[in-house]
Amino acid sequence: MSNMQATLRALADPIRREILAMLKKGRLSAGDISDHFPVTGAAVSRHLAVLREAGLVRDQREGKFIYYELNASVLEEVMLWLVELRGEDTEYVEAK
Q1: What integer is the mean pLDDT of 4-28?
Q2: DSSP 8-state secondary structure symbol assigned to residue 16
Q3: What percentage of residues in the chain have a pLDDT greater than 90?
C-alpha cells in the first residue's frame, strides 16, 4: 500500500480523525486518548497503530507509557495533493 493510500485509509475513520484533532493540541498518552472514547483500549490501540503506520502520528515510550504526537508533515502532503488535484478548478471554486 502506498503512503497516500495508507494516509487516506487512516483518515477515513471518524475515531482516527478525532484522535488527530486531540493530538493537534499536544502530545497525549495512549491511556489519555483511550479514556476519551467509548471503545476498548485494544480498539484504540489498533486505531493508533493505523495512524502510526500511515505516518500521521509518532510515538515515544517513556517508562511504562507511550505518548503520541501529530506528524503534520504527512497532512501537508495530502493537502498539497488535494490542491493539485483541484488544478484549474481552484479559480472557478473561489469565484463562486
Answers
A1: 95
A2: H
A3: 68
Residues, the chain, total?
A: 96
Q: Which three cell numbers stand for residue 59?
A: 510515538
Q: pTM of the entire structure?
A: 0.82
Calpha distance 56→49 (Å, rounded): 10
For residue range 51-78, what is the model confidence (pLDDT) as tens digits? 999 999 999 999 999 999 999 888 888 8
Q: Are 39 and 58 in contact (CB under 8 A)?
A: no
Closest Cα partner for 15 from 38, 26, 94, 92? Answer: 38
- If you average pLDDT over residues 82-90, what whole number do you get? 75
Judged by phi (left if over 0) then psi (alpha if -120 to 50, else beta), residue 87 lies in left
SS in 3 state form for 24-88? CCCCEEHHHHHHCCCCCHHHHHHHHHHHHHCCCEEEEEECCEEEEEECHHHHHHHHHHHHHHHCC
